[in-house]
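FORM 7B: Structural annotation worksheet

SECTION A. Query
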Amino acid sequence: MERRHLDLATGGGGAPTASAFEDDLALADDETFDATGLTLFVATGVRMEVARIVEHDAGDTLYARGEPVLCETADGIAHGEVVVPSRRVLLRAPLPRILRRASQGDLATLAQLRAREQAVAVVARKAAHEARLPVKVVRAEAAQGGARFLVFFASETRFSFRDWLRGIGRSTRERVELRQIGLRDAARAIGGVGPCGLQLCCNTFLSDFTPVSIKMAKSQGLPLNPQRVSGMCGRLLCCLVYEEAHYRASRQQVPHPGEAVGTPEGSGHVREVDVLEMQAVVELDAGGARTIPLSAIVRRSVE
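SECTION B. Predicted structure
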């Protein structure tokens, strides 16, 4: 999805003003941008599904941070909170719509739905525990205004959950549907803090999961310790993808381990390379190892 952000003018308190629509969509002289097929939206970032932020089309209405809103989703109308104020965005794909601001009555209804969701989730967890099912109940979510409830669970084992579903329905007197999700989706729904000390990427800004391989960890020189390269979901860290392109491009320009090189301290062979620090450990032919900046190393193969 190609986007072009054009910030709206803001009035007091940081809320966008309607006069912002009169601004020209001009680009800098040295900037080139293909707007073919793009549509101008008044996009608003809405927090949905715990802490995920989803862009929505605000139509002709401007929303400020903190406002409760009602949005359209694949499962009906859902509540959300504006976390990114309205601004103009050019993109090729449509956005889900914000229907309107939530009223006090909507918020009271939301509180009732949240209580019912919690009750369904508690019953689902208890029933799974009593039946000794290999599942992790992530959450229950009201759909169609509470006409039915979706129970999301994660499991690496295939099993028949028909009896489990019947038990939940009998205990809650609600129409319940079970939806199995992956471990990454479970971590996204639950949230938490990663080893970096920040909130999980999947729970904040990631919209899709990119395939991650152990080869990425190797190319970045990380220890192949599951506790070091795995996230809270037990899968490889999604952030391994972020710098993979940089490492791949950089390693094509630097000597490889075992390669014969020349240094200010004599010739030798590369033992290891630190791409970020742009230095290498070289085993000198005269004996001993030295850490030498890559700028001072001469690759014999390119002399």
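SECTION C. Observations
Residues 1-29 have pLDDT under 50 and may be disordered. The chain has four domains: 3-102, 106-184, 210-252, 260-302.

SECTION D. Sign-off
Analyst initials: ____
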